[in-house]
Amino acid sequence: MTHRISRAPRRTARPSKAPRSPRAPRESTWRLWKDLSPLLRLLILTQLAFNIGFFAVLPFLAEHLGTAIGMAGWLVGFVLGLRTFSQQGLFVVGGWLVDRWGVRPVVLAGCVLRIAGFAWLGYAEATWAVIGAVLVIGFAAALFSPAVESEVARQAVVWEEEGHGSRTRVLALFSVAGQAGAFVGPLLGALLLAVDFRTACLAGAAVFVLVLAGHLWLMPQHIPGRVRVRERGGVRALLRNRRFLALCCAYGTYLLAYNQLYLALPDEVQRAAGSQAPLSWLFALSSVLVVFAQLPVTRWAGDRLDLRRSMTAGLLLIASGFAVVAAARPAGWTGTAGLLPAAGFVVLLTVGQMLVVPAARAWVPDLAEEGRLGLYMGALSSVSGLIVLVGSAATGSLLDPDLPAAVPWLVLAAVPALAVALLPRREERTGPADTP
Predict the structure, then answer these.
(1) Quick one: which of 21, 52, 252, 303 could link to 181 by a disulfide (CB 3.0–4.6 Å)?
(2) Residue 379: pLDDT above 50?
(3) Which residues lie in Basic residues bias regions (predicted)?
Protein backbone atom coordinates (compact mmCIF):
# COMPACT_ATOMS: atom_id res chain seq x y z
CA MET A 1 0.00 0.00 0.00
CA THR A 2 1.33 3.44 -0.91
CA HIS A 3 1.95 5.75 1.99
CA ARG A 4 0.49 9.24 1.65
CA ILE A 5 1.73 12.16 3.65
CA SER A 6 -0.99 13.75 5.73
CA ARG A 7 -2.39 17.08 4.57
CA ALA A 8 -2.99 18.21 8.11
CA PRO A 9 -0.81 20.89 9.67
CA ARG A 10 1.91 19.75 12.01
CA ARG A 11 0.07 21.11 15.05
CA THR A 12 -2.72 18.56 14.66
CA ALA A 13 -0.33 15.75 15.48
CA ARG A 14 0.71 17.29 18.80
CA PRO A 15 -1.98 15.79 21.08
CA SER A 16 -0.66 12.28 20.40
CA LYS A 17 2.54 13.09 22.25
CA ALA A 18 2.76 12.46 25.95
CA PRO A 19 4.01 15.29 28.14
CA ARG A 20 7.76 15.37 28.29
CA SER A 21 9.56 14.71 31.51
CA PRO A 22 12.97 16.28 32.01
CA ARG A 23 15.78 14.02 30.83
CA ALA A 24 19.45 14.43 30.37
CA PRO A 25 20.35 15.07 26.73
CA ARG A 26 22.22 11.77 26.49
CA GLU A 27 19.18 9.79 27.66
CA SER A 28 16.87 11.63 25.27
CA THR A 29 19.18 11.03 22.33
CA TRP A 30 19.42 7.32 23.13
CA ARG A 31 15.65 7.08 23.46
CA LEU A 32 15.21 8.82 20.12
CA TRP A 33 17.74 6.51 18.49
CA LYS A 34 15.94 3.41 19.81
CA ASP A 35 12.64 4.67 18.40
CA LEU A 36 14.01 4.98 14.88
CA SER A 37 13.47 2.35 12.21
CA PRO A 38 16.50 0.32 11.02
CA LEU A 39 16.38 2.22 7.72
CA LEU A 40 16.57 5.60 9.46
CA ARG A 41 19.48 4.43 11.58
CA LEU A 42 21.30 3.27 8.45
CA LEU A 43 20.73 6.60 6.70
CA ILE A 44 21.88 8.66 9.69
CA LEU A 45 25.02 6.56 10.12
CA THR A 46 25.55 6.96 6.37
CA GLN A 47 25.58 10.74 6.77
CA LEU A 48 28.16 10.41 9.55
CA ALA A 49 30.38 8.20 7.37
CA PHE A 50 29.93 10.42 4.29
CA ASN A 51 31.26 13.45 6.15
CA ILE A 52 34.12 11.60 7.83
CA GLY A 53 35.37 10.39 4.45
CA PHE A 54 34.80 13.73 2.73
CA PHE A 55 36.36 15.97 5.38
CA ALA A 56 39.36 13.68 5.80
CA VAL A 57 40.44 14.88 2.35
CA LEU A 58 38.83 18.10 1.11
CA PRO A 59 40.01 20.58 3.79
CA PHE A 60 43.58 19.78 2.75
CA LEU A 61 43.03 19.86 -1.01
CA ALA A 62 43.90 23.53 -1.59
CA GLU A 63 47.29 23.25 0.12
CA HIS A 64 48.06 20.02 -1.76
CA LEU A 65 47.23 21.64 -5.11
CA GLY A 66 49.29 24.73 -4.36
CA THR A 67 52.37 23.11 -2.81
CA ALA A 68 52.68 19.50 -3.98
CA ILE A 69 51.29 20.04 -7.49
CA GLY A 70 52.37 23.66 -7.85
CA MET A 71 49.14 25.13 -9.21
CA ALA A 72 48.74 28.90 -9.36
CA GLY A 73 46.37 30.44 -6.85
CA TRP A 74 43.72 31.28 -9.45
CA LEU A 75 43.77 27.69 -10.71
CA VAL A 76 43.37 26.31 -7.19
CA GLY A 77 40.31 28.51 -6.73
CA PHE A 78 38.96 27.39 -10.11
CA VAL A 79 39.34 23.71 -9.20
CA LEU A 80 37.62 24.21 -5.85
CA GLY A 81 34.81 26.09 -7.59
CA LEU A 82 34.37 23.23 -10.05
CA ARG A 83 34.06 20.82 -7.15
CA THR A 84 31.32 22.95 -5.58
CA PHE A 85 29.45 23.33 -8.87
CA SER A 86 29.62 19.62 -9.72
CA GLN A 87 28.17 18.86 -6.29
CA GLN A 88 25.80 21.58 -5.12
CA GLY A 89 24.74 22.71 -8.57
CA LEU A 90 23.81 19.19 -9.69
CA PHE A 91 21.84 18.15 -6.60
CA VAL A 92 18.66 18.69 -8.57
CA VAL A 93 19.86 16.12 -11.13
CA GLY A 94 20.58 13.61 -8.38
CA GLY A 95 17.14 14.23 -6.88
CA TRP A 96 15.46 13.63 -10.24
CA LEU A 97 17.35 10.34 -10.61
CA VAL A 98 16.24 9.26 -7.13
CA ASP A 99 12.58 9.80 -8.02
CA ARG A 100 13.01 7.85 -11.24
CA TRP A 101 15.22 4.95 -10.14
CA GLY A 102 14.93 4.77 -6.36
CA VAL A 103 17.27 5.39 -3.43
CA ARG A 104 19.41 2.25 -3.46
CA PRO A 105 20.87 2.37 -7.00
CA VAL A 106 21.57 6.12 -6.79
CA VAL A 107 23.36 5.82 -3.43
CA LEU A 108 25.39 2.85 -4.67
CA ALA A 109 26.37 4.67 -7.86
CA GLY A 110 27.39 7.72 -5.83
CA CYS A 111 29.56 5.61 -3.53
CA VAL A 112 31.30 3.93 -6.48
CA LEU A 113 32.03 7.32 -8.05
CA ARG A 114 33.33 8.75 -4.75
CA ILE A 115 35.67 5.76 -4.29
CA ALA A 116 36.97 6.17 -7.84
CA GLY A 117 37.30 9.94 -7.44
CA PHE A 118 39.28 9.80 -4.21
CA ALA A 119 41.57 7.07 -5.54
CA TRP A 120 42.12 9.06 -8.75
CA LEU A 121 42.82 12.26 -6.80
CA GLY A 122 45.42 10.48 -4.68
CA TYR A 123 47.44 9.61 -7.78
CA ALA A 124 46.60 12.67 -9.93
CA GLU A 125 49.51 14.97 -10.73
CA ALA A 126 48.57 16.63 -14.02
CA THR A 127 46.05 19.48 -13.98
CA TRP A 128 43.59 17.64 -16.23
CA ALA A 129 43.70 14.60 -13.92
CA VAL A 130 43.07 16.69 -10.82
CA ILE A 131 40.11 18.42 -12.50
CA GLY A 132 38.66 15.08 -13.60
CA ALA A 133 39.00 13.58 -10.13
CA VAL A 134 37.43 16.62 -8.47
CA LEU A 135 34.47 16.57 -10.88
CA VAL A 136 33.88 12.88 -10.15
CA ILE A 137 34.07 13.52 -6.39
CA GLY A 138 31.56 16.37 -6.65
CA PHE A 139 29.09 14.53 -8.87
CA ALA A 140 29.20 11.54 -6.53
CA ALA A 141 27.79 13.73 -3.75
CA ALA A 142 25.20 15.12 -6.18
CA LEU A 143 23.95 11.54 -6.45
CA PHE A 144 23.99 10.13 -2.93
CA SER A 145 23.23 13.26 -0.87
CA PRO A 146 19.77 14.00 -2.38
CA ALA A 147 18.97 10.30 -2.17
CA VAL A 148 19.78 10.07 1.53
CA GLU A 149 18.33 13.48 2.46
CA SER A 150 15.02 12.90 0.67
CA GLU A 151 14.54 9.45 2.17
CA VAL A 152 15.39 10.72 5.66
CA ALA A 153 12.81 13.49 5.21
CA ARG A 154 10.19 11.02 3.99
CA GLN A 155 10.88 8.56 6.79
CA ALA A 156 10.77 11.43 9.31
CA VAL A 157 7.24 12.27 8.17
CA VAL A 158 6.22 8.61 8.58
CA TRP A 159 7.83 8.60 12.04
CA GLU A 160 5.86 11.71 12.98
CA GLU A 161 2.56 10.31 11.69
CA GLU A 162 3.10 7.15 13.74
CA GLY A 163 2.98 9.37 16.84
CA HIS A 164 6.65 9.38 17.86
CA GLY A 165 7.01 13.16 17.83
CA SER A 166 7.99 15.99 15.52
CA ARG A 167 9.78 15.09 12.31
CA THR A 168 12.29 17.85 13.05
CA ARG A 169 13.83 15.69 15.81
CA VAL A 170 14.84 13.07 13.25
CA LEU A 171 16.21 15.71 10.90
CA ALA A 172 18.08 17.30 13.79
CA LEU A 173 19.75 13.98 14.58
CA PHE A 174 20.66 13.75 10.90
CA SER A 175 22.30 17.20 11.16
CA VAL A 176 24.18 16.15 14.31
CA ALA A 177 25.57 13.08 12.53
CA GLY A 178 26.73 15.22 9.63
CA GLN A 179 28.38 17.77 11.91
CA ALA A 180 30.07 15.05 13.96
CA GLY A 181 31.51 13.65 10.74
CA ALA A 182 32.68 17.12 9.72
CA PHE A 183 34.44 17.39 13.09
CA VAL A 184 36.07 13.94 13.08
CA GLY A 185 37.02 13.92 9.39
CA PRO A 186 39.66 16.70 9.51
CA LEU A 187 41.20 15.16 12.62
CA LEU A 188 41.55 11.85 10.80
CA GLY A 189 42.89 13.60 7.71
CA ALA A 190 45.47 15.54 9.72
CA LEU A 191 46.78 12.28 11.17
CA LEU A 192 46.95 10.64 7.74
CA LEU A 193 48.74 13.63 6.23
CA ALA A 194 51.67 12.72 8.47
CA VAL A 195 52.19 10.00 5.85
CA ASP A 196 51.10 11.86 2.70
CA PHE A 197 48.06 13.25 0.85
CA ARG A 198 47.63 10.03 -1.13
CA THR A 199 47.16 8.09 2.10
CA ALA A 200 44.42 10.50 3.19
CA CYS A 201 42.69 10.07 -0.19
CA LEU A 202 42.85 6.28 -0.01
CA ALA A 203 41.54 6.34 3.56
CA GLY A 204 38.62 8.51 2.40
CA ALA A 205 37.96 6.02 -0.39
CA ALA A 206 38.07 3.18 2.17
CA VAL A 207 35.33 4.87 4.19
CA PHE A 208 33.10 4.88 1.12
CA VAL A 209 33.93 1.24 0.45
CA LEU A 210 32.46 0.49 3.88
CA VAL A 211 29.40 2.62 3.12
CA LEU A 212 28.95 0.83 -0.22
CA ALA A 213 29.19 -2.58 1.46
CA GLY A 214 26.73 -1.54 4.17
CA HIS A 215 24.15 -0.37 1.64
CA LEU A 216 24.58 -3.43 -0.54
CA TRP A 217 23.85 -5.57 2.51
CA LEU A 218 21.28 -3.50 4.44
CA MET A 219 19.47 -1.15 2.04
CA PRO A 220 16.22 -2.80 0.85
CA GLN A 221 15.63 -3.18 -2.87
CA HIS A 222 12.24 -1.54 -2.48
CA ILE A 223 11.37 0.83 0.35
CA PRO A 224 7.68 0.57 1.38
CA GLY A 225 5.74 3.69 0.40
CA ARG A 226 8.20 4.91 -2.23
CA VAL A 227 7.08 4.74 -5.86
CA ARG A 228 9.16 5.63 -8.88
CA VAL A 229 7.95 8.41 -11.15
CA ARG A 230 8.32 7.76 -14.87
CA GLU A 231 6.42 10.69 -16.39
CA ARG A 232 8.03 14.02 -17.19
CA GLY A 233 6.99 17.50 -16.16
CA GLY A 234 8.33 17.59 -12.61
CA VAL A 235 10.71 20.49 -13.25
CA ARG A 236 7.99 22.64 -14.83
CA ALA A 237 5.70 22.03 -11.86
CA LEU A 238 8.55 22.86 -9.47
CA LEU A 239 9.22 26.17 -11.22
CA ARG A 240 5.55 27.05 -10.85
CA ASN A 241 5.52 26.17 -7.14
CA ARG A 242 5.90 29.67 -5.73
CA ARG A 243 5.69 28.57 -2.11
CA PHE A 244 8.53 26.10 -2.53
CA LEU A 245 10.67 28.62 -4.41
CA ALA A 246 10.01 31.14 -1.64
CA LEU A 247 11.29 28.58 0.88
CA CYS A 248 14.39 28.03 -1.30
CA CYS A 249 15.09 31.76 -1.38
CA ALA A 250 14.74 32.08 2.39
CA TYR A 251 16.94 29.03 2.92
CA GLY A 252 19.41 30.48 0.43
CA THR A 253 19.83 33.59 2.59
CA TYR A 254 20.73 31.30 5.51
CA LEU A 255 23.36 29.57 3.36
CA LEU A 256 24.67 32.96 2.23
CA ALA A 257 24.97 33.99 5.87
CA TYR A 258 26.66 30.69 6.75
CA ASN A 259 29.12 31.23 3.92
CA GLN A 260 30.37 34.32 5.78
CA LEU A 261 32.22 31.93 8.09
CA TYR A 262 34.63 31.61 5.17
CA LEU A 263 34.42 35.17 3.81
CA ALA A 264 33.60 37.90 6.33
CA LEU A 265 34.66 36.12 9.53
CA PRO A 266 38.30 35.51 8.45
CA ASP A 267 38.57 39.20 7.58
CA GLU A 268 37.25 40.18 11.01
CA VAL A 269 39.51 37.71 12.84
CA GLN A 270 42.53 38.96 10.90
CA ARG A 271 41.69 42.54 11.91
CA ALA A 272 41.16 41.71 15.58
CA ALA A 273 43.97 39.20 16.15
CA GLY A 274 46.52 40.08 13.51
CA SER A 275 46.32 36.55 12.07
CA GLN A 276 43.70 33.93 11.20
CA ALA A 277 44.94 31.42 13.77
CA PRO A 278 41.85 31.80 16.02
CA LEU A 279 39.60 30.70 13.12
CA SER A 280 40.16 27.02 13.86
CA TRP A 281 38.89 27.54 17.41
CA LEU A 282 35.81 29.38 16.20
CA PHE A 283 35.04 26.60 13.69
CA ALA A 284 35.49 24.02 16.43
CA LEU A 285 33.11 26.04 18.64
CA SER A 286 30.45 25.89 15.92
CA SER A 287 30.85 22.13 15.45
CA VAL A 288 30.74 21.37 19.17
CA LEU A 289 27.62 23.50 19.60
CA VAL A 290 25.79 21.57 16.89
CA VAL A 291 26.85 18.16 18.19
CA PHE A 292 25.80 18.82 21.78
CA ALA A 293 22.99 21.39 21.48
CA GLN A 294 21.16 20.54 18.24
CA LEU A 295 18.77 17.98 19.74
CA PRO A 296 17.88 20.01 22.87
CA VAL A 297 17.26 23.08 20.71
CA THR A 298 15.10 21.08 18.31
CA ARG A 299 13.08 19.55 21.17
CA TRP A 300 12.52 23.01 22.62
CA ALA A 301 11.47 24.47 19.27
CA GLY A 302 9.31 21.47 18.41
CA ASP A 303 7.26 21.94 21.58
CA ARG A 304 6.71 25.66 21.02
CA LEU A 305 7.14 26.62 17.36
CA ASP A 306 5.74 25.49 14.03
CA LEU A 307 8.03 25.24 11.02
CA ARG A 308 7.56 28.85 9.90
CA ARG A 309 8.15 30.28 13.38
CA SER A 310 11.21 28.09 13.83
CA MET A 311 12.74 29.37 10.60
CA THR A 312 11.77 32.93 11.50
CA ALA A 313 13.49 32.68 14.88
CA GLY A 314 16.56 31.14 13.28
CA LEU A 315 16.89 33.81 10.60
CA LEU A 316 16.48 36.59 13.16
CA LEU A 317 19.15 35.03 15.40
CA ILE A 318 21.49 34.91 12.41
CA ALA A 319 20.75 38.56 11.67
CA SER A 320 21.48 39.46 15.29
CA GLY A 321 24.88 37.72 15.01
CA PHE A 322 25.89 40.10 12.22
CA ALA A 323 24.44 43.01 14.20
CA VAL A 324 26.66 42.17 17.19
CA VAL A 325 29.80 42.60 15.08
CA ALA A 326 28.39 45.74 13.45
CA ALA A 327 27.77 47.29 16.87
CA ALA A 328 31.30 46.51 18.05
CA ARG A 329 33.25 47.50 14.91
CA PRO A 330 33.29 51.27 15.51
CA ALA A 331 35.08 50.68 18.84
CA GLY A 332 37.98 49.06 16.97
CA TRP A 333 38.75 46.52 19.71
CA THR A 334 41.66 44.15 19.10
CA GLY A 335 43.16 41.15 20.86
CA THR A 336 40.93 38.96 23.02
CA ALA A 337 38.31 41.68 23.42
CA GLY A 338 38.24 42.14 19.65
CA LEU A 339 37.50 38.45 19.13
CA LEU A 340 34.47 38.43 21.44
CA PRO A 341 32.06 39.89 18.84
CA ALA A 342 33.30 37.29 16.33
CA ALA A 343 32.64 34.54 18.88
CA GLY A 344 29.18 35.98 19.51
CA PHE A 345 28.52 35.95 15.77
CA VAL A 346 29.54 32.28 15.52
CA VAL A 347 27.31 31.28 18.45
CA LEU A 348 24.24 33.16 17.18
CA LEU A 349 24.77 31.94 13.62
CA THR A 350 25.09 28.34 14.82
CA VAL A 351 21.99 28.47 17.03
CA GLY A 352 20.10 30.03 14.13
CA GLN A 353 21.33 27.21 11.92
CA MET A 354 19.99 24.66 14.44
CA LEU A 355 16.52 26.17 14.03
CA VAL A 356 16.56 26.80 10.28
CA VAL A 357 18.04 23.60 8.80
CA PRO A 358 15.78 20.91 10.35
CA ALA A 359 12.70 23.09 9.82
CA ALA A 360 13.49 23.75 6.15
CA ARG A 361 14.10 20.07 5.43
CA ALA A 362 10.97 19.10 7.33
CA TRP A 363 8.92 21.61 5.34
CA VAL A 364 9.87 20.29 1.89
CA PRO A 365 7.64 17.16 2.01
CA ASP A 366 4.63 19.41 2.63
CA LEU A 367 5.41 21.50 -0.46
CA ALA A 368 6.63 18.83 -2.87
CA GLU A 369 4.57 17.46 -5.74
CA GLU A 370 3.44 13.87 -5.43
CA GLY A 371 6.30 11.47 -6.08
CA ARG A 372 8.90 14.23 -6.50
CA LEU A 373 10.47 14.54 -3.06
CA GLY A 374 13.96 13.71 -4.35
CA LEU A 375 13.70 16.40 -7.02
CA TYR A 376 12.51 18.98 -4.49
CA MET A 377 15.17 18.14 -1.90
CA GLY A 378 17.81 18.41 -4.61
CA ALA A 379 16.34 21.69 -5.84
CA LEU A 380 16.43 23.12 -2.31
CA SER A 381 20.21 22.72 -2.34
CA SER A 382 20.74 23.75 -5.97
CA VAL A 383 18.58 26.88 -5.88
CA SER A 384 20.05 27.90 -2.55
CA GLY A 385 23.55 27.24 -3.88
CA LEU A 386 22.87 29.50 -6.85
CA ILE A 387 21.80 32.24 -4.45
CA VAL A 388 25.06 31.81 -2.54
CA LEU A 389 27.06 31.91 -5.77
CA VAL A 390 25.47 35.19 -6.85
CA GLY A 391 25.30 36.67 -3.36
CA SER A 392 28.89 35.88 -2.46
CA ALA A 393 30.19 38.13 -5.20
CA ALA A 394 28.05 40.99 -3.88
CA THR A 395 28.92 40.42 -0.23
CA GLY A 396 32.61 40.12 -1.09
CA SER A 397 32.53 43.65 -2.46
CA LEU A 398 31.13 44.84 0.88
CA LEU A 399 34.44 44.07 2.55
CA ASP A 400 36.01 47.04 0.78
CA PRO A 401 38.15 48.80 3.40
CA ASP A 402 36.91 52.20 2.19
CA LEU A 403 33.43 51.53 3.60
CA PRO A 404 32.57 52.48 7.19
CA ALA A 405 33.46 49.60 9.51
CA ALA A 406 29.90 48.69 10.51
CA VAL A 407 28.28 48.93 7.06
CA PRO A 408 29.16 45.46 5.68
CA TRP A 409 27.90 43.72 8.79
CA LEU A 410 24.71 45.80 8.90
CA VAL A 411 23.95 44.91 5.29
CA LEU A 412 24.63 41.25 6.02
CA ALA A 413 22.32 41.46 9.05
CA ALA A 414 19.53 42.86 6.89
CA VAL A 415 19.59 39.94 4.42
CA PRO A 416 18.32 37.12 6.72
CA ALA A 417 16.05 39.56 8.57
CA LEU A 418 14.31 40.56 5.32
CA ALA A 419 14.15 36.91 4.22
CA VAL A 420 11.56 36.26 6.94
CA ALA A 421 9.02 37.94 4.67
CA LEU A 422 9.70 35.31 1.99
CA LEU A 423 8.62 32.35 4.12
CA PRO A 424 5.34 30.74 3.02
CA ARG A 425 2.44 31.74 5.22
CA ARG A 426 0.87 28.32 5.63
CA GLU A 427 2.45 24.92 6.23
CA GLU A 428 -0.34 22.67 5.04
CA ARG A 429 -0.27 21.38 1.50
CA THR A 430 -2.35 22.96 -1.23
CA GLY A 431 -1.70 20.25 -3.79
CA PRO A 432 -1.94 16.46 -3.72
CA ALA A 433 -0.31 14.57 -0.86
CA ASP A 434 3.22 13.46 -1.53
CA THR A 435 4.02 9.87 -2.36
CA PRO A 436 7.79 9.72 -2.77
Answers:
(1) 52
(2) yes
(3) 1-14
